[in-house]
Design brief:
Elements: H1 2-14, H2 18-41, H3 48-55, H4 59-65, H5 71-90, H6 95-112, H7 114-126, H8 129-133, H9 136-155, H10 165-185, H11 192-205
Helix pairs in contact: 2-3, 5-6, 5-9, 6-9, 6-11, 7-10, 9-10, 10-11
Length: 216
């Protein structure tokens, strides 16, 4: 009996219910409608009422999913983190290869949604500190995902074990955000995939020409 209960519990945790799927569709519809309006008219010019009208939802439904209009901008990071977590969970390869695949995926997202990313960068940098705090959870989640991969690499002997995984992850994530900012500032006229690959090489192998074993 206990085994069957465990099996049911496990299934209910991994397969979203019809209600959960409906909630996710509603959330996605609000997000998509808002992004379309932001891109056409600018973030400040769009009201929550206009977003609700475009998504065909009541104002109360909007606030069930997003506490503020600014929270819509943090949704991009949340979705990226979900995709990244899935990639890391399913990726078959060592920690170094996983880091390369993770950053490549983030770069590809930027290339697929350039206007959204540029909007996101522009608005985040122009917001007061209280707005930036709303993005803290997404940044912390990204750092945690990368830190876990680095820790796995340390156990396997790929990376130096004396390094603090979280600090190494912060350095890598900060570099990624700096590249995304520069890419957005140049209007997309930067080979972001090549830049991220080169930056990761610098992080993993340093700037010196020292001979020896290099990260694969």
């Amino acid at each position: 009996m206990a085994e069957s209960i465990d099996r049911v519990t496990s299934t209910s945790q991994t397969v979203p219910s019809r209600r959960d799927r409906k909630k996710e569709r509603t959330r996605g519809g609000i997000y998509s409608a808002a992004m379309n309006l932001f891109l056409r008219r600018g973030f400040e010019a769009v009201t929550i009422k206009e977003i609700c009208d475009a998504a065909d939802v009541a104002r109360g439904t909007f606030f069930l999913h997003f506490p503020t209009k600014e929270a819509l901008l943090a949704e991009y990071g949340a979705r990226a983190n979900q995709d990244l977590a899935e990639l890391i969970r399913n990726f078959q390869g060592n920690a170094t290869a996983t880091l390369r695949a993770a950053l490549k995926m983030l770069a590809e997202r930027a290339l697929q949604q350039p206007d959204v990313v540029r909007l996101h960068v522009r608005e985040v940098l122009s917001r007061p500190p209280v707005f930036l705090e709303s993005h803290q959870d997404q940044t912390e989640n990204l750092v945690s995902l990368i830190a876990a991969v680095i820790g796995r690499g340390q156990v396997a002997g790929e990376f130096r074990r004396k390094l603090e995984p979280a600090l190494a992850a912060v350095a890598l994530c900060a570099t990624y955000f700096a590249l995304i900012y520069e890419w957005a500032r140049r209007g997309g006229k930067l080979d972001i995939e090549a830049a991220i690959a080169q930056t990761l090489d610098i992080v993993l192998n340093g700037l010196s020409e020292r001979k020896g074993k290099r990260a694969a």
